[in-house]
Design a protein that fits this description.
mainly alpha
């Protein structure tokens, strides 16, 4: 190990772990308590619930997994449904990896990094990584993401054993923590007019898209429209400044 290793890996990793443990990890973890509760309701052991958090690392997919088991769905159908539910991580990973790619980095290392991409890790990384030296970004991101997983696994375990104790309104409120934190982080990470327009249009179009489209595709449609309009406006402003 070289002398530069602590500066490039250990210290950034510890700083990322600490930053996540201050608040983001608990927001995600508390929202995943319901996964432990659901696993207990369908008759699965606590080990399966915790393992799903470590390996799947996606609350909606975990809920889909255990709910589908409770409904008696075929394993092939469950795998296909979870695969489609996880497609949302592909554009997120494509957007994040350029910030984490380093010279000499292997495909296996990039696949390992991609495993840790989730909603909170993604939005917080986009906000924090540009201010971190490039050589420290991978260590910081892995520390941050590992804190999210460790706390989430602990909360999944706690949710399993607290099933029936936590009132239903409280459990429902905990599920809303992640989207609220996600929106707050996006607003905090706004870097220009394009970001503001994209977020504003997405929020404004969501109710209309829900009424007109529904079926789980309303958020996708409002996001595509809002993001596309923001992108075109941003390009128009850049072209106007270049021609001025």
């Amino acid at each position: 190990m070289t002398e530069a290793a602590p500066d490039q890996w250990l210290r950034p990793w510890a700083r990322g772990f600490r930053d996540a443990a201050m608040l983001p990890a608990w927001v995600v973890g508390l929202s995943l308590m319901g996964v432990g509760t659901l696993a207990r309701d369908v008759g699965y052991p606590v080990e399966a619930a915790v393992l799903s958090t470590i390996l799947v690392w996606a609350g909606p997919s975990q809920v889909l997994f255990f709910a589908s088991i409770a409904a008696g769905a075929a394993w092939s159908a469950i795998a296909l449904a979870i695969g489609f539910a996880s497609l949302r991580f592909l554009p997120m990973t494509v957007a994040l990896l350029p910030l984490l790619r380093r010279p000499g980095q292997s495909v296996a290392q990039q696949m390992l990094i991609a495993h840790f991409v989730a909603v909170t890790a993604w939005v917080e990384a986009l906000r924090r990584l540009p201010n971190i030296p490039p050589e420290q970004r991978v260590g910081y991101f892995l520390g941050f993401a590992n804190a999210l997983i460790v706390v989430s696994a602990f909360c999944t375990y706690a949710g399993f054993h607290l099933a029936g104790v936590v009132p239903a309104p409280v459990a429902a409120g905990l599920l809303c923590l992640t989207p609220i934190f996600f929106l707050s982080s996006m607003v905090a990470g706004v870097r220009g007019l394009g970001d503001t327009i994209a977020i504003g249009l997405g929020l404004a179009l969501a109710p209309a898209a829900g009424w007109a489209i529904g079926g789980g595709f309303d958020l996708i449609a409002s996001g595509i429209v809002g993001g596309s309009v923001a992108f075109l406006i941003q390009r128009w402003r850049k072209a106007r400044k270049a021609g001025a």
